[in-house]
Design brief:
The complex is a heterodimer of chains A (130) and B (379). Chain A is α+β, with helices and mostly antiparallel strands. Chain A has three helices and four strands. Chain A has a two-stranded antiparallel sheet with strand order 1-2. The longest helix of chain A has 9 residues. Chain B is mainly beta and 379 residues long. Chain B contains six helices and 24 strands. The radius of gyration of chain B is 23 Å and the shape is globular. The chains are: A alpha+beta (130), B mainly beta (379). The interface between A and B is medium-sized, with 30 and 32 residues. Chain A: It comes from Streptomyces liliiviolaceus.
Chain lengths: 130, 379
């Protein structure tokens, strides 16, 4: 059969056909197709919307003893990637902190010692789609 | 990293329970979890076993157990987060519970055992007729009954199309929905299973060919010094596993029976090895003479494809060292096993073993021939 599948990387030729890895914040973002006037198609990642803030599951809230483990007080020397390693085991997951405390620049998260920032619970990272 | 208990280290486990809609369990229940064992297999029903610590005056023994929190048919969803990326491992129903009360303090346990959501489809026997519906539409009609458990159908058209003729034959279902759907899948060379996720409370019911295309998972490394992620990996090559089925079909008009030609199985199972194994056995299928021609062809294709996997491997890995959860029913690369056995494999089944401080996976992989097709695997 000549039409069997691409063992090597047939998808490489198509931009945007590769999904982002599971750990990426763009994993759930939709891939759009823009058709140029001459008919060629250009793929692009659509805008990613942040998961809704500040309305955690009410039942979830009842069952938790206090806010322990959900907030972090920034100390001197903290960096978003260090916090990502500390709370998620992966420094590249700092974006989960940035999502939970909406900031434009991730450095705003930790530039002021004494600031209290929210730490999202593991497994509650918004609506994930495959 | 390996000493940090589950829940405080890079691996977090989240439990949700409830009758049909689930909610997160009280913190005491998660803390009492001693071990979890979850099995997922392609084409078979998944199962699980969770053990809890049953303290005498704990909330489980005092309130939750008598109130029916762990009753049969309670739905339970297990989510595991590795390095901030969460995966739903299980969406199932409790079937039985065992309480072991012990004289020694701290040794009383509650063990709940259950199966994944396809148990729902196996509870009730049903006789139903599906006039003028091809097999995939019959499966869709059956799966539509279970949408309130968040089961979304993921159904593919059959490879050999079987146009129904209401005046010739009306297809009847006897037995449970799961039996009928599995039987239809087997007759077409497909598999049927429920895949939990991507979000807790959802699962997709796949009725289609096994996923032997697309992106491979991160490779399993063996025998590579400190780069190896797999503790041990055993391969076995059974030459008699592959058989060449033969089917005869009788034309009802002329009464001439013909031997059906051998179909190529690559549309159903794209080859993963470079050197496919020749079939040693030749078997004749029974009952194909009086079927419709398309049905007989589909069954021939299904039997040829199902028996093609002659190489099977099994092993175990430590998720902390591997860094990713090995997902069942997808492709994965193997390296370090030598030129004959390196390459891409289909992950047949995975058993997750979780306990505080460790997360082990036992897996089986399979493919149909020796030697890799491609010069490299995805690392």
């Amino acid at each position: 059969m000549a039409d069997i599948e691409p063992y090597e990387n047939a998808l490489d030729a198509i931009p945007g056909a590769h999904p982002y890895p599971r750990s990426s914040r763009y994993h759930d973002a939709e891939i759009g197709i823009h058709r140029q006037p001459d008919g060629t198609e250009v793929r692009y990642t659509k805008r990613r919307l942040l998961p809704p803030l500040g309305q955690p599951d009410q039942l979830d809230q009842l069952d938790r003893p206090g806010d322990e483990g959900r907030r972090h007080t920034v100390g001197s020397g903290d960096r978003p990637d260090l916090l990502g390693q500390r709370y998620f085991g992966d420094p590249a997951q700092w974006w989960q902190l940035a999502d939970a405390n909406p900031v434009l620049d991730p450095r705003e998260l930790t530039d002021e010692a004494g600031k209290v920032i929210e730490v999202p619970l593991p497994g509650s990272g918004g609506e994930r789609r495959v | 990293m390996f000493d940090v208990p589950v829940g405080q280290g890079p691996v977090h486990i989240t439990l949700r329970m409830g009758p049909k809609l689930t909610r997160p369990v009280p913190a005491e229940v998660t803390e009492a979890l001693l071990s979890a064992q979850i099995t997922a297999t392609a084409g078979e029903r998944g199962g699980f076993q969770l053990a809890f610590d049953l303290t005498k005056n704990g909330i489980i023994n005092r309130a939750l157990l008598p109130e029916g929190f762990f009753d049969p048919k309670t739905r339970i969803i297990v989510t595991v987060t590795v390095k901030g990326t969460s995966d739903v491992l299980l969406d199932g129903l409790i079937v039985r519970q065992e309480v072991g009360a012990s004289n020694q303090p701290g040794h009383s346990t509650l063990t709940v055992t259950g199966e994944d959501l396809s148990l729902l489809m196996d509870l009730e026997e049903r006789t139903d007729r599906y006039p003028n519906l091809p097999p995939s539409d019959r499966v869709l009609a059956i799966l539509r009954r279970y949408s309130d458990y968040g089961i979304r159908p993921d159904v593919y058209k059959e490879k050999v199309s079987q146009p129904p003729h209401q005046d010739l034959r009306v297809h009847y279902q006897t037995g449970t929905d799961l039996q009928y759907v599995t039987e239809l899948a087997r007759a077409n060379g497909y598999t049927f299973y429920l895949e939990p996720g991507p979000t807790p409370g959802q699962s997709s019911a796949r009725w289609g060919p096994e996923i032997r295309l697309g992106i491979r998972q991160h490779a399993l490394n063996v025998n590579m010094d400190n780069n190896s992620t797999v503790d041990q990996l055993t391969f076995s090559y059974d030459g008699t596993a592959r058989e060449e089925p033969q089917a005869r079909w009788q034309d009802p008009g002329t009464r001439v029976s013909t031997l059906l030609p051998q179909p190529p199985i690559s549309p159903l199972r794209p080859p993963l090895g470079r050197r496919p194994t020749p079939a040693l056995k030749r078997r004749t299928l029974t009952g194909t003479a009086k079927q419709q021609r398309e049905q007989a062809e589909a069954e021939l294709l299904a039997r040829a494809a199902v028996s093609a996997d002659v190489i099977s491997g099994s092993g175990s890995l430590d998720v902390n060292r591997h860094g990713y959860i090995l997902q069942p029913r997808q492709l994965v690369g193997v390296r370090g096993a030598g030129r004959a056995y390196d390459g891409d494999y289909y992950v047949k089944s995975v058993t997750h073993n979780l306990r505080p401080g460790s997360y082990q996976q036992n897996f089986t992989v399979s493919r149909e021939g020796l030697e890799a097709r491609s010069a490299y695997v995805r690392p």
